[in-house]
UniProtKB/TrEMBL annotation:
Organism of derivation: Xaviernesmea oryzae
Domain of life (superkingdom): Bacteria
Protein name per the record: Small metal-binding protein
InterPro entries documented for this protein: DUF1059 (IPR009409)
Record-linked Pfam families: DUF1059
Amino acid sequence: MRLFECGTLVPGCEWHTRADSDAEVVRRAVDHLRQTHGEETIRETMVENIKARIRDDAPQPAEQ
Ligand SMILES: [Zn+2]
């Protein structure tokens, strides 16, 4: 699994997401940034920032 924690990009935000692929993690993170942080336009640099912060995560069966 791949993990992205929004707090690495937006200090203080507790939101995080896990997915099988980086592409899915990025898609969910972009949705979150739009809806929660009011980022109406997600720039390429923002996507790069998200990708740079995605890391491997052990499977979490309880959350599936
Ligand atoms: Zn957030």
